[in-house]
Amino acid sequence: MIAAVLSLTLLGVALGWGLGLAARYLRVESNPVHEEIQQMLPGVNCGQCGYPGCSGAAEALATGKASVTLCPPGGPTLVQALAAKLGVAVDGASHSGPPLLARIDEATCIGCAHCGKRCPTDAIIGAPKQIHGVMQDACIGCGLCVDVCPTECLQLRPVAPALKTWHWPKPALGFGV
Amino acid sequence: MKLFDFWGGVHPAGQKHLSAEQAIQILPMPSRLHVPLQQHTGRSAVAVVKVGQTVRKGELLGQEQGGVSAPVHAPTSGVITAIGDFTAPHVSGLPLPTVTLESDGEDRWLEQEPPPDPFALEPEEVAARIGEAGIVGMGGANFPSAVKLSKARQARVHTLAVNGAECEPYMTCDDRLMRERAEHIVDGVRLMLHALQAPNAVIAIEDNKPEAVARMKAACQNEGQIRVVVVPSRYPAGSAKQLIQILTGLETPAGGRGTDTGVLVHNVGTAYAVHRALRQARPLISRIVTVTGGAVAEPKNLEAPIGALVEDLLAFCGGTTDAPARLLMGGPMMGHPLPGTQVPIVKGTNGILALTAAELRLAATPSPCIRCGRCVEACPMGLMPLEMSKRARHDDLDGAQAFGLIDCISCGSCAFACPSHIPLVQYFEYARGALEARQRAEQKARETRRLLEQRQARLVRAEQAKAEAAARRQAEKRQARMKGGATA
Questions:
Q1: What is the pTM of this model?
Q2: Does residue A42 belong to the interface with chain B, where contact is any CB pair within 8 Å?
């Protein structure tokens, strides 16, 4: 009885010590940027980028294999954040300036209901054969719906400036302050 | 009463002589009024009238929405001709939802009975009536007064400070109001004290307005609770936090409110509006506006209906002598440039200022900061404007925030004192706006994440429901087959 307890305890201690050493000396270096990027991504593993989930996308981004514009649900905010994080210039495909949001031209919407199925944030409302609408607060301007619209009534349009969001521009002076 | 001092401040030229001796005149009713639905801090009011509807003076045009909001009322009788976007009195020139009212020239009131004795009402009831009258802070902050009173009563404020300092150069509307309607102001103060359930009130007036001081003192003679205090003229003595410091020696904590010191500040114009609301059942539909500046032919103090165009006011004052170099709503220190004269005046408009090039410092072009520290000496909040502006310039918003950006009251003392003429306040306004934009983006990102998760969950649920339905169908089929086998 005592021998069995003793031997198992010793075995446990020895193996634990071995594992501890292995964790310290045989550790695989992971890219710290990878972790940080994963925190920035939406984290729902939708797979729209073509990588196996957000972790895969973060790895591709960290190693420079993917463009910062890969994540449609993240929208332009994420593109800018990623570009700043990775120190790369945003390529021409993406958009700078006022943010773009999807809007439906009600005159040409035929109610095919294709757009609602693609929308990652369920921002499009409408029943089949009825005019659809985009909830501006929920839209992230990813443009997935624009591709499937058969009548091109869905377009990304710049958000009109509003008094609530307006603020003074930075003074333009030709010298340091 | 012992007075205290506040740090910093500046002495800009008062220029009040231009309009100080002009008695308040009533602006002839313009044929058309444009009443914005948002004239206050908080949520916009929603129109309760329809195009083509006839309204009487004082009738409700827009209903308040939610806790922090204020209603708007018809400034005259007439017909609603439009409800839609109209240029706001704001530097951006962007529109606001606005009710356009065509005057019928009769100026017929919607008759309402004032309460027989407002002091017999419950304090909450008094505050509610102030809210229903659409009264907002008339010193320029535009915060709904009823909300401010209720919150302060809950915070057990002991003193109501009534702000008649009017430290902003050129402005004389509060001065004239105190000289001409002192009794009404004092009555309004008593009503506010009742709503607050506070023991005493102090009316603070700068020493450059001796006539207003004399009139107010006379009006307060038999009021034990209310005292008139003369404070030295120094900008920005009329800023709420600085006024509290002068009166009590207490500094408002960083990021805190004035009421944290046990003092609530209200403008004299607000006290007058409270008197009108409770004694005569009149909502806030007009205010005193000082129209002045070197470019105005005859500077005047006008009682103008809310929604009158700046153009109407300037025309009544003989127009502008030559094209003004700058047109401001408010005073020269804290006023905002206007996009044109086709904008309405609102509840918070204390003045229209048309300045000539000679009055401005336009010739002075900004030059680099020499780190002389005059802005630090001038800042009444004890901040370091030079450090904040440097960080704002380099978009280091967190750095600017760490130097107290949130505590800046945008009084403009630093920019006034700056020998390099650097537009310091614009840097702070920019940084504050950029910070808010960043917070909005972060909020949106959080919301997006939530929506994505909900959609994912919905898809999983739909998949499960489908699988269950399929399984059920299969089971039914099998059962039917077995039954069929048994009968055979």
A1: 0.84
A2: yes
